[in-house]
Amino acid sequence: MRLLISSLLAGLLCLTVAFPAAAIDLSKDVAGSKDIPGLPRYEGSIIMAYQLGEFDEAVVPLAPFQDGDWSDAVKLEGRVTRILYLAPPDRSSLEVIRNYENSLKELGYTTVFQCGGFDECGKDVDTFYSEDLHGAQFTETHTAKNAFSQMSVKDPRIVVAKGMLDGKESNIFIFAAYQENYHEPQASDRVAVYVQEVLAKPMENKMVVLKADELAQDIDATGKAAIYGIYFDYDKADIKPESKPQLEQMAAMLKSRPELNVLIVGHTDNQGGLDYNMGLSQRRAEAVAAALSKDFGIDGSRLTPKGVAYLAPVATNRTEEGRAKNRRVELVER
């Protein structure tokens, strides 16, 4: 049944695309990518997508996928590396995952979870990648986004292992499966491998709190104030407690200027799709407005939350530093 449905989905995609897809070179790694230090790739694989965050958080599964999510998992913080490999043709997911297991064992890692097949890993385990709400899907290119295309995956296999690297705890999550890629035929009918490492690393303290008078000065000079001292849980609109000092200063400024009405504008970087980031930035803007109103007594009618995703960058999204500058909240005079 999965094979029949996947064939129908592939056919529908062909009917809806009105222009040919640009040819891509799957003979070499994507620019700027590299293997996780110390962990070799399966021989002959190429990197289709790559992402490195010096301090981020990621979910590491500890049990099978059930009812749309991992039945047990931990969210870890540190340096997060995510890589999507395409294995050579005519290789099975079993062969690929066994090679990774042997490499991890030689490196001194301990296996904390492993499974093979839908019965062990979960009947919809492939959707941890294909549904971007789980935060694993690469969306920078259509080819990477369509890896593990829905209803095409066969023989999924997972290994999760923990070890020490240069004195720091390293957690590795590997998912390998035979799959089709509905966007790029060259990437179809072969095994793709998703590799994620979370390397324990303390967060750099870069909290910036703009005082009430500084906020007022920025608004007087430019009509807006860019704020970087509000922090959210990863991929959520929940405001972290360490944001309180900045919220206090925002409230103090608004109280000192009772005639001032503002837009609270949420901005993101370009990691992820536009629609998704529009929703996330809107929810975050609404959370800031709600906090100012509920916790600090600011009249809600003075606050208009608006999310604009990555439509108004102040720096390049090609670097980690630029993306950090683009992730912000702005107070804009209304």
UniProtKB/TrEMBL annotation:
Subcellular location: Cell outer membrane
Keywords assigned: Cell outer membrane, Membrane, Signal
Keyword Membrane set for record: yes
Pfam families: DUF4892, OmpA
Domain OmpA-like positions: 219-334
Domain of life: Bacteria
InterPro entries linked to this entry: Bact_OuterMem_StrucFunc, DUF4892, OMP_bac, OmpA-like, OmpA-like_sf
Gene Ontology CC annotations of this record: cell outer membrane
Leader sequence segment: 1-23
Stored PANTHER family: LIPOPROTEIN YIAD-RELATED (PTHR30329:SF21), STATOR ELEMENT OF FLAGELLAR MOTOR COMPLEX (PTHR30329)
Name of the protein this chain belongs to: DUF4892 domain-containing protein
Organism the protein comes from: Oceanidesulfovibrio marinus
